[in-house]
């Protein structure tokens, strides 16, 4: 597998480039390498997607910080998977939404993309699931079967564009294709529109869509379901984009591919060591050995007990953070035993306490009166 190029090099900007510099550089590359201007050029398509990936990371302050610190590994699993140009248009509507770009990249026949929020339980996101979503979308009209014409009639060719659906305009140094203003890009004129869809060929309908949720998605993830958006007018349907929201878990916290659980233990378990059971995903139980002398805040690791990697093999770890509980009430016998322990602590000074006391002594000795 070829090594990924540096995102700053791809866009041709310095590492201290401003957000406006990053955006401007990407616009130029998107215009240069767009597939419509380079039909059949696989290299141009690759560069087009490569620039989109770089921009997707560098425009996001959080992702940019992670990339600056850890490189490509820092944003692994956090970068959108762009399959084609339509994915990129949907992700960066602020750039492609209007003006020169909006006209140049217009595709009037393809259906609109849909966006829906999907709420998941913590373990559904970690382990994967299937969700049935209800959406209202434009679908092919059942009365006219998508033609837009009243049954028994036919459309006629548009005289303005001669049935091509497009007109050409010259702007600056570019020759730009835009949708025909007369027929809206269809190439046809409907003189007797369908009464149910008003000639659009599509009508709103409530429908159910089953969506597979891959294991390892995180809060804020975006999933693309190809061609499950609105129907196009004699073109491909748009896509459905699922934006993931994950409910908090009462026990686990997620940190990338790892999960963290806080486990309280007694003072004696911490001092003497012990074997305990801790909860894991899918109601599993893990046997964990607490080493003698464990401190509050120490973290133990259960390898492979975490989240499956969304864009890679294996899974993260389960982290067990220890909290040593100090009892608020003691029986007379417990008080007696602890007093005996306290007497030995006054005689036997640990290296950590000795170092601390030496620092305190030096501090007060050197401090001005």
Describe this structure in words.
- The chain is of the alpha+beta class and 369 residues long.
- The chain is built from 11 helices and 15 strands.
- Helix 2 packs antiparallel against helix 3.
- The model is unreliable at 97-108 (pLDDT under 50).
- It has helices at 7-11, 19-33, 42-58, 61-70, 85-91, 93-96, 99-104, 122-127, 267-272, 332-347, 351-366, and strands spanning 114-120, 129-140, 156-157, 166-171, 174-179, 188-189, 202-213, 222-225, 240-246, 252-255, 258-266, 274-279, 285-290, 299-302, 318-325.
- It has a 4-stranded mixed β-sheet. A 3-stranded mixed β-sheet has the order 1-9-8. The chain has a two-stranded antiparallel ribbon with strand order 2-7.
- The chain has 4 domains: 1-105, DnaJ domain (Helix Hairpins), CATH 1.10.287.110; 113-155 and 190-248, Sandwich (HSP40/DNAj peptide-binding domain), CATH 2.60.260; 249-326, Urease metallochaperone UreE, N-terminal domain (HSP40/DNAj peptide-binding domain); 330-369, no CATH class.
* Rg from Cα: 31 Å
Distance between the termini: 67 Å
The CATH architecture name of the largest domain reads Orthogonal Bundle
Low-confidence sequence ranges: 97-108
Q: Work out the helicity level.
A: 25-40%
Binned strand content: 25-35%
Count the E strands. Answer: 15
Which whole number gives the mean pLDDT?
83
* Largest sheet geometry: 4 strands, mixed
Total number of domains? 4
Q: Which secondary-structure class do the elements indicate?
A: alpha+beta
- In DSSP terms (H or I, runs of 4 or more residues), the helix count works out at 11
**Which class of the largest domain in CATH terms?**
Mainly Alpha
Strand order of the largest sheet: 10-11-15-14
Q: Quick one: overall form?
A: elongated
CATH topology-level fold name of the largest domain:
Helix Hairpins
């Amino acid at each position: 597998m070829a090594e990924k190029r540096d995102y700053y090099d791809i866009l041709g900007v310095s590492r201290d480039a401003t957000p406006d510099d990053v955006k401007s550089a990407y616009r130029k590359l998107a215009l240069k390498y767009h597939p419509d201007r380079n039909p059949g050029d696989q290299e141009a398509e690759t560069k087009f997607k490569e620039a989109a990936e770089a921009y997707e990371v560098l425009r996001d302050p959080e992702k940019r910080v992670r990339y600056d610190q850890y490189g490509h590994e820092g944003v692994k699993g956090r970068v959108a998977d762009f399959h084609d140009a339509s994915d990129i248009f949907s992700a960066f509507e602020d750039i492609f939404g209007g003006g020169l770009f909006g006209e140049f990249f217009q595709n009037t026949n393809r259906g609109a993309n849909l966006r829906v929020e999907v709420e998941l339980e913590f373990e559904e996101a970690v382990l994967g699931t299937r969700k049935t979503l209800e959406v209202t979308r434009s679908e092919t009209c059942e009365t006219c079967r998508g033609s837009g014409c009243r049954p028994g009639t036919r459309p006629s060719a548009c005289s303005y564009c001669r049935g091509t659906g497009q007109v050409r305009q010259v702007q600056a140094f570019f020759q730009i294709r835009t949708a025909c203003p007369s027929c809206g890009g269809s190439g046809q004129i409907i003189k007797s529109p369908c009464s149910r869809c008003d000639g659009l060929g599509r009508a709103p309908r409530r429908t159910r869509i089953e969506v597979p949720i891959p294991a390892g998605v995180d809060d804020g993830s975006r999933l693309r379901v190809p061609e499950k958006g609105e129907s196009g007018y004699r073109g491909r349907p748009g896509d459905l984009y699922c934006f993931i929201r994950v409910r908090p878990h009462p026990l686990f916290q997620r940190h990338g591919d790892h999960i963290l659980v806080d486990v309280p233990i007694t003072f004696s378990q911490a001092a003497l060591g012990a074997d305990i059971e801790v909860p894991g995903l899918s109601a599993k139980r893990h046997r964990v050995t607490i080493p003698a002398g464990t401190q509050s805040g120490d973290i133990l690791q259960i390898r492979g007990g975490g989240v499956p990697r969304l864009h890679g093999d294996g899974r993260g770890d389960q982290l067990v953070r220890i909290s040593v509980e100090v009892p608020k009430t003691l029986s007379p016998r417990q008080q007696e035993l602890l007093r005996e322990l306290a007497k030995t602590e006054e005689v036997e000074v640990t290296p950590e306490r000795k170092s601390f006391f030496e620092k305190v002594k030096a501090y007060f000795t050197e401090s001005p009166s």
